[in-house]
């Protein structure tokens, strides 16, 4: 890490390592894309390109660009710039982790229960609202959503055991 | 011609009956609601009201249903500007400057500009429909696969090369978008590609999921990093902001006119509103004196895409009526409605069902005026949403993003993909990858590939098909000019510079 | 539950009168307890989607069901997504899927693992016809004129437009190639309406559009029907374009093109549903068929109004699957993984 260079700004992963990381991920996706296109054929049939033609060259360009981006990130002198401070990243994770759990839980709990919990968590944890307000918003909003989507617009959203118990 | 004008006045007489006016307001309000809520679109609004319309006269029914359409078009801009979440493909370009304006505390101005531009674009298109309807329908017929490909080509060319970011990052981002857009079923061969046997990949990556993640979730993560609040709190909450913005807007008449023309052209050719909005934004950025400030909250960056998108959306209704080809899911549901009311969309509708067609055209005028009044009076209310504390609004946005992502394919895997795109959006923004080219590529990439391959199928693999007729050659040439515009411009200034007064030596 | 609905129906109460006559008490005990979902394994605006949405409208308007009907499009993977969803919803009495030919072609062409045997057959609502269309400006008056011209020119001189790849339109095209002995260039488009417009614009030479997709252009004198891919003429006598009616169109066989193809518009349910539920839907569909709106839809689209249920329907589907397997194998459209 480069904390010695810029102590006052706080420490964190360097911008350089983030640049290399992002470019590497893109390169990886490109390689997956190349494998996928090879499977369906990348040639040029009599009537024009086959299914894998465009994806193949597109992936190839992504791969080349990623290599260029990695090289140019490494070539830059280490100026000690940080991607974000650790404390900032912690805050991002405070949102990201509950959201990720939310997305994974939705198929099992249904979207309404999961949403109520997510809203309650945010309001209580970050907003420090008292429980009465938290409960009002966290329970009220999913109910309004339910009425709007399921009953009024007839758009079914994922439902779980609670909705089944209530007969929906 | 005179007869048409008589028909139009007759149409107005039908539309202003109190019963129809009430239906109009109901339609617009409902349309704005479905336009604002991610996960609902004009198609849903029309679908629920369709059964109710079976007992009405077709003219009353189309007035109410088309007003849902106008309402939804107006509503789409609201979430783009306030939360950086475009609900429809053609609202993406509105976020580029609309959201930065909201962050600067100018949400009211941005909303007013967006609504007014939508109105101007739609009005221009309706006037065009009224005057040249028959000509327009035959123009639409001249678009085969090579012509359609050339239009997408032009849209890409007028948009690329716009970003300040390093070129290889722009290329990587755009090409990644093309790659993601290609996942799923290959329309041309009926083969699955890059799904690796995974059921959840059958659909590929829909633009909406990518955009909700990259823009919406990514933005919440960035906001979290910078501290727990939205920066748009200072938005003015009174009606005066509407009038102030109006005083400023006439200055951009040239921009509006150009955007209207681009929009109408794209709407009639089957390319549609999305390329229109990107193209209009791209060209405005190149031509405007303040072009280099685009992306930081320029009002012109809101006017250009909104005007073009709505001119296109409105003029696209004409091919729908006269050719029976729906340009969007909403139009498809509307078209289904026509069949149930016993009307047959097609070239004869104009002669056989005069009441209906001119009632519809009159309702386009009235609906847009009523719609503009309704949404403008609500500007302070919309702007006030930004005053809700972050800890309350953030989870609510997350929930609506999840609903929006889910409803695209009714698939919970898409909610997970949305979060993945959110992380990608955050990382890419922090490492200076431009997101707009990626989104453009996801939206238009597969369509461009499709028309490209259709063209080559038709020509037995000969590339000359892209220069085969006057129309397609002209559009391709325009595309090349747009692509090399920066080069042309700098050469031009250099030539003029050397021919005219010599530059002062430094 | 009823709050939102009441709000919606204010002002439109008038339409409720006069429809009660049709909603007689159902004979069987089973009744839906939630909204009924109709899955459409195709995008919005296509033939299957239009039929599902029309039925939704008819059921709502005539109050044929106590529960509402919801139409959901699951078009991913040439409809494979929708079929997999139904296959995996074992025992769900509130889910139906409307089929088109991709019931057979998608698993064969893509290798997505499903078959009609994974589902419970409910009823055939109709069969959709296919007609050979050309632009009215072209000199071809009969199918024979067109076929003769194809035969007199080299391979790939003629462009056939159709919906999707390795699906019904391309299957018919392959059968035509076999009958004429000449190759045609098949160009796939997203939807039938688009194909018809491309034909009006002279970007393709012919199409095999369903009647409803092209009828408006026929009436306007832009397209000309040459023959119908069925073993008998269409059974609709109403004049449509000038003196011509649907039954003026000769069969392709009579014009020397021995090609027949009909497309299933029918319903299936997930595996393991209760027989009472199936009986309820069969009864519901029978009521739908009695409504004037349904009859209008049938005659507008010149549908073949065959209605089948139970074993008869299952047998028809099994035969159709065999037929498709033969056609797909012959055309070389089977996925390599199979």
Model description:
The complex is a heterotrimer of chains A (168), B (506) and C (338). Chain A has helices spanning 15-40, 53-75, 86-109, 111-125, 131-152, 161-165; strands spanning 44-45, 48-49. With 168 residues, chain A is an all-alpha fold. In chain A, strands 1-2 form a two-stranded antiparallel sheet. In chain A, 36% of the residues are buried. With 506 residues, chain B is an all-alpha fold. Chain B has one domain (2-486). Residues 500-506 of chain B have low confidence and may be disordered. Chain C has helices spanning 2-9, 47-61, 80-87, 102-110, 143-152, 168-180, 192-200, 211-219, 275-290, 292-300, 310-331, and strands at 36-40, 69-73, 95-98, 120-128, 131-135, 159-163, 185-189, 206-207, 223-228, 239-241, 244-245, 263-269, 308-309. Chain C has 338 residues and is an alpha/beta fold. Chain C folds into 2 domains: 36-128 and 263-331, Bordetella uptake gene, domain 1 (D-Maltodextrin-Binding Protein, domain 2); 131-248, Periplasmic binding protein-like II (D-Maltodextrin-Binding Protein, domain 2, 3-Layer(aba) Sandwich), CATH 3.40.190. Chain C is built from 11 helices and 13 strands. The chains are: A mainly alpha (168), B mainly alpha (506), C alpha/beta (338). The interface between A and B is large, with 74 and 69 residues.
Query: What gyration radius of chain C follows from the Cα positions, in whole Å?
Result: 21 Å
| Beta-strand share of residues of chain A | under 5%
Radius of gyration of chain A: 24 Å
Shape of chain A: flat
> pLDDT under 50 segments of chain C (min length 5)?
1-26
Count of strand segments of chain C: 13
Mean pLDDT of chain C: 86
CATH topology of the largest domain in chain C: D-Maltodextrin-Binding Protein, domain 2
Specify the CATH architecture of the largest domain in chain C: 3-Layer(aba) Sandwich
Determine the structural class of chain A based on helices, strands and strand pairing. Answer: mainly alpha
- Describe the biggest sheet of chain C? 6 strands, mixed
Q: Going across the biggest sheet of chain A, name each strand in turn.
A: 1-2
Number of domains of chain A: 2
N-to-C series of helices and strands of chain C:
HEHEHEHEEHEHEHEHEEEEHHEH
Q: What is the strand arrangement across the widest sheet of chain C?
A: 2-1-3-12-4-13
């Amino acid at each position: 890490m480069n904390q010695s260079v810029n102590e006052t700004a706080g420490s964190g992963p360097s911008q350089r390592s983030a640049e290399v990381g992002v470019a590497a991920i893109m390169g990886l996706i490109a390689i997956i894309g190349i494998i996928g296109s090879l499977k369906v054929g990348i040639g040029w049939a009599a009537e024009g390109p086959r299914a894998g033609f465009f994806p193949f060259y597109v992936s190839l360009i992504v791969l080349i660009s990623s290599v260029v981006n990695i090289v140019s990130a490494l070539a830059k002198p280490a100026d000690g710039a940080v991607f974000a401070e650790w404390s900032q990243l912690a805050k991002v994770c405070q949102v990201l982790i509950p959201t990720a759990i939310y997305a994974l839980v939705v198929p099992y709990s249904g979207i309404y229960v999961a949403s109520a919990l997510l809203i309650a968590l945010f309001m209580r944890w970050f907003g420090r609202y008292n429980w009465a307000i938290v409960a009002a918003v966290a329970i009220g909003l999913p109910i309004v959503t339910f009425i709007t989507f399921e009953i009024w617009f007839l758009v079914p959203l994922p439902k779980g055991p609670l909705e089944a118990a209530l007969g929906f | 011609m005179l007869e048409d004008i008589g028909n139009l006045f007759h149409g107005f007489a039908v539309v202003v009956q109190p019963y129809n006016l009430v239906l109009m307001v109901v339609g617009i309000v409902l349309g704005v609601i479905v336009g604002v809520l991610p996960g609902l679109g004009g198609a849903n609004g029309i679908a629920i009201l369709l059964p109710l319309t079976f007992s009405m006269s077709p003219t009353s029914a189309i007035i109410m249903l088309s007003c849902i359409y106008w309402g939804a078009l107006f509503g789409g801009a609201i979430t783009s500007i306030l939360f950086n979440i475009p609900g429809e493909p053609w609202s993406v370009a509105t976020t580029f400057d609309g959201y930065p304006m909201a962050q600067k505390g100018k949400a009211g101005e941005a909303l007013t500009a967006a609504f007014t531009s939508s109105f101007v674009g739609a009005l221009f298109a309706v006037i065009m429909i009224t005057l040249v309807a028959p000509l327009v329908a035959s123009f639409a017929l001249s678009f085969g696969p090579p012509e359609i490909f050339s239009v997408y080509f032009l849209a890409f060319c007028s948009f690329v090369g716009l970003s300040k970011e390093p070129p290889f990052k722009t290329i990587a981002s755009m090409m990644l978008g093309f790659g993601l857009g290609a996942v799923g079923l290959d329309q041309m061969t009926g083969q699955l590609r890059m799904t690796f046997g995974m059921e959840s990949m059958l659909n590929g990556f829909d633009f909406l999921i990518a955009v909700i993640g990259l823009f919406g979730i990514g933005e919440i993560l960035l906001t979290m990093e910078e501290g727990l609040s939205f920066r748009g709190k200072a938005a003015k909450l009174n009606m005066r902001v509407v009038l102030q913005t109006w005083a400023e807007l006439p200055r951009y008449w040239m921009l509006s006119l150009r955007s209207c023309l681009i929009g109408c052209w794209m709407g009639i050719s089957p390319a549609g509103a999305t390329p229109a909005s990107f193209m209009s934004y791209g060209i405005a950025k190149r031509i405007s004196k303040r072009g280099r400030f685009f992306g930081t909250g320029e009002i012109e960056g809101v006017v250009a895409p909104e005007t073009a998108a709505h001119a296109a959306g409105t003029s696209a209704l004409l091919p729908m009526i006269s050719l029976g080809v729906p340009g969007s899911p909403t139009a498809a549901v509307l078209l289904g409605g026509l069949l149930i009311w016993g009307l047959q969309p097609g070239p004869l509708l104009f002669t056989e069902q005069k009441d209906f067609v001119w009632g519809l055209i009159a309702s386009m005028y009235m609906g847009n005026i009523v719609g503009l009044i309704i949404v403008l009076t609500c500007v302070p209310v919309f702007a006030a949403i930004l005053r809700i504390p972050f800890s309350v609004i953030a989870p609510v946005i997350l929930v609506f993003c999840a609903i929006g992502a889910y409803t695209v394919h009714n698939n919970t895997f898409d909610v997970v993909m949305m979060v993945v795109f959110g992380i990608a959006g955050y990382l890419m923004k922090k490492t200076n990858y431009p997101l707009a080219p990626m989104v453009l590529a996801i939206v238009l990439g597969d369509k461009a590939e499709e028309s490209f391959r259709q063209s080559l199928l038709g020509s037995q693999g000969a590339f000359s098909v892209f220069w085969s007729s006057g129309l397609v050659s002209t559009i391709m040439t325009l595309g090349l000019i747009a692509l090399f515009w920066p080069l042309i411009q700098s050469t031009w200034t250099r030539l003029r510079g050397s021919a005219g007064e010599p530059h002062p030596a430094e | 539950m009823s709050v939102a609905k009441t709000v919606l129906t204010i002002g439109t109460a008038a339409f409720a009168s006069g429809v009660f006559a049709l909603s007689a008490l159902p004979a069987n005990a089973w009744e839906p307890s939630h909204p009924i979902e109709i899955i459409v394994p195709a995008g919005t605006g296509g033939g299957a989607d239009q039929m599902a949405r029309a039925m939704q409208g008819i059921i709502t308007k005539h109050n044929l069901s106590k529960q509402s009907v919801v139409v959901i499009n699951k078009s991913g993977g040439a409809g494979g997504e929708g079929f997999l969803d139904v296959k995996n919803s074992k025992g769900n009495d509130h889910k139906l899927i409307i089929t088109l030919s991709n019931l057979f072609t998608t698993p064969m062409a893509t290798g997505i693992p499903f078959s009609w045997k994974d589902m419970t057959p409910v009823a055939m609502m109709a069969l959709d016809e296919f007609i050979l269309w050309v632009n009215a400006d072209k000199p071809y008056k009969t199918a024979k004129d067109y076929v003769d011209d194809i035969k007199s020119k080299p391979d790939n001189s003629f462009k056939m437009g159709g919906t999707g790849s390795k699906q019904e339109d391309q299957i018919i095209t392959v059968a035509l190639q076999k009958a004429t002995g000449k190759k045609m260039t098949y160009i796939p488009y997203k939807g039938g309406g688009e194909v018809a417009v491309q034909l009006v614009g002279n970007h393709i030479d012919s199409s095999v559009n369903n009647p409803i997709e092209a009828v408006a252009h026929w009436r306007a004198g832009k397209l000309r029907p040459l023959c119908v891919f069925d073993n008998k003429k269409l059974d609709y006598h109403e004049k449509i374009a000038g003196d011509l009616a649907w039954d003026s169109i000769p069969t392709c066989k009579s014009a020397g093109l021995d090609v027949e193809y009909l497309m299933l518009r029918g319903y299936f349910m997930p595996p393991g549903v209760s027989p009472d539920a199936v009986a309820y839907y069969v009864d519901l569909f029978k009521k739908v068929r009695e409504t004037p709106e349904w009859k209008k839809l049938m005659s507008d689209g010149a549908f073949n109004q065959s209605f089948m249920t139970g074993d008869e329907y299952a047998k028809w589907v099994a035969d159709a699957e065999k037929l498709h397997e033969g056609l797909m194998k012959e055309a070389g459209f089977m996925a390599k993984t199979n």
